[in-house]
Amino acid sequence: MSTMSSEVVKSSRQDHTAVKSSLWTQSMRKLRKNKLAMSGLIFVILMFLACFVGPLFSPYTDGKINVTAMNKAPSLKHWLGTDMLGRDVMTRLLQAGRISLTVGLASMLLSVFIGSILGAIAGYYRGIVDQVIMRIADLLLTIPGLPILFILGALLSEWKVPVDSRMYIVMLMLSFVGWPGLARLVRGQMLSLREREFMQAAVVLGLRDRRKLFNHLLPNLFPLLIVVATLSIGGAILSESVLSYFGLGVTPPTATWGNMIDSANNVIDFEKHPWLWIPPGFAIFSTVIAINIFGDGLRDVLDPKHKK
Amino acid sequence: MSTYLTKRLIYMVLILIGASMLIFFLYALTPGDFVSGNLKMSAERKAELRDLYGLNKPVFERYLIWMKNALHGDFGYSLAQQKPVLTLFNEYIWNSFLLAIVSTFLTWVIAVVIGVISAYKQYSWFDTIVMIFIFAAMSIPSFFIGLFLIKTLAVDLKWLPPGGMMTTGSNATGWAYVKEVIHHMTLPVVVMTLLGVGSLTRYFRSNMIDVIQQDYIRTARAKGLTERTVLFRHALRNALLPAITLVGFELPGLFGGSIIIEKIFNWPGIGQLYMQSFGSRDYPLLMGFTMFIAVLTVIGTLISDILYHLADPRVKL
């Protein structure tokens, strides 16, 4: 009898540890085994560190104009050479990365926030609210994205937005075109979730709508949202670079990876000074590829229903 | 089906009207108009021209006029080039179509072949390389890869021309003309194919992986069919079928040109025309172009949904 009870205790203890290993810890353990995804994550972290901490160790942070060192090719003193104002390209590249990464991250957060809240409300309440929200989303999805961004970019110049705050407006612009797709996705998921048994239990318990929505329904979408959000950072970084390249996003003197490539529009810089515009291109490319590889690994773990 | 189509068509028209309104007001908000950009003109002449083009009327009235004419099939005159918008579209659109059709064809062929092989050899070294290639292709900034290839292949190595559709001053005809155009379109086609091939390869790879795991494939193998027959007659067909739903989504890309690629390669297509008109605020052209793409998008989605239903009758419309 006593041995049995001790066994029961033992097995219940095991149960306890099993409960402790939640879905999240299990997923993260699986993710850590995916070497490709982890190297993507490590690369992104290193890129962030380099951009945000790196310039502190550079002797050229002030971006002062140096007439004696204009358009110099890469050397030991200037790893990626200097531009037409004698500024160190390496330092500028890292400072530009701060803006590009921040814009990518922030516009993703904003469009995920807007998209998931509006999509959740539309899918939960249905009826007229759903109609209004989804028709607006349809409308925005019908209009080609690039022209909309171009118009909004031109408006930026018209309203004389100060150079420093242009990056915030660019974030708003990107999330303006980014949220409708997300809202559609979340709404679709919501329509099926709200019919599940646990929601009937929530109704029986007499919970308020807000609690049902934000404590019971949305958390079920977190895995999906995390995956989609990660993958959309890369897209946002690419969009920002296109806009800034065409002079409609963040403009100089604030450097971003996109507007640094703008120097390729000048024939002499394009042909004779490739160190001005090739490094930022590779910075965009390598960062986006790392984010996408990591996002794909996340998807395998968090969204197993998705077709591989 | 027919009630579905009627409902769907009505909704399409409503969405397009909404879209046209939104686009029109956004273009009206953009700073400056066609006349204000001209420095040589006197103030009176500007006022006169604004009067002539109707640029000083209230926005809403202008929209109604535009809409009325558009419904009659008249999209107005380009202010910069003094030609009807539709005539200009006709001049430029086929250049865009040429790039798009060739690169779309190449994209699909490459994606099917590579996708199917790498699905069949899942987890092999070939498959791993393909996966890395897919991620790379999906992460390239389009304008940068264009510039980079121009710099390396055209400027440094001089293998291919850096841009345009013809060599400047050339008046080749016949075969020489065809050869010259092919020579000029190689780079943009390569870039466009590269940009599209990643996600499509991935799509075919995952479709094929799904199909290979199906019971009917196991049955086919158990019956003793050759691996070839299993692969090409049983698996491939089922893996390719769902792709016909993508055909509709290609529509805007086929006729709408590519703003970025045409700008970088100085290709005389409709996207390039759009960029020029954007600089000069030539709003009849801007409106025409944007609405054209919107119409193609809406029609493309409808085609996709119908094809989806045809390919898989279980999908209700």
From TrEMBL, chain A:
InterPro entries found in the cross-reference section: BP-dependent_transpt_permease, MetI-like, MetI-like_sf, Oligopeptide_permease_AppC, OppC_N
Annotated GO biological process: transmembrane transport
Keywords: Cell membrane, Membrane, Transmembrane, Transmembrane helix, Transport
Entry-linked Pfam families: BPD_transp_1 (PF00528), OppC_N (PF12911)
Listed PANTHER family: ABC TRANSPORTER (PTHR43386:SF23), OLIGOPEPTIDE TRANSPORT SYSTEM PERMEASE PROTEIN APPC (PTHR43386)
Sequence similarity: Belongs to the binding-protein-dependent transport system permease family.
Protein name per Swiss-Prot or TrEMBL: Peptide ABC transporter permease
UniProt organism field: Paenibacillus selenitireducens
Organism placement in taxonomy: Bacteria, Bacillati, Bacillota, Bacilli, Bacillales
Automatic annotation (TrEMBL), chain B:
Subcellular location: Cell membrane
InterPro entries: BPD_transp_1_N, MetI-like, MetI-like_sf
Membrane topology: Multi-pass membrane protein
Highest taxon listed in the record's lineage: Bacteria
Membrane spanning residue stretches: 9-29, 92-117, 129-150, 185-204, 239-265, 285-308
One GO process term, biological-process aspect: transmembrane transport
Assigned keywords, A-Z: Cell membrane, Membrane, Transmembrane, Transmembrane helix, Transport
SUPFAM superfamilies: MetI-like
Primary location group: membrane
Any Pfam family matching the protein: BPD_transp_1_N
GO cellular component: plasma membrane
Domain spans labelled ABC transmembrane type-1: 93-308
Family classification: Belongs to the binding-protein-dependent transport system permease family.
Protein name stated in the entry: Diguanylate cyclase
Organismal lineage: Bacteria, Bacillati, Bacillota, Bacilli, Bacillales
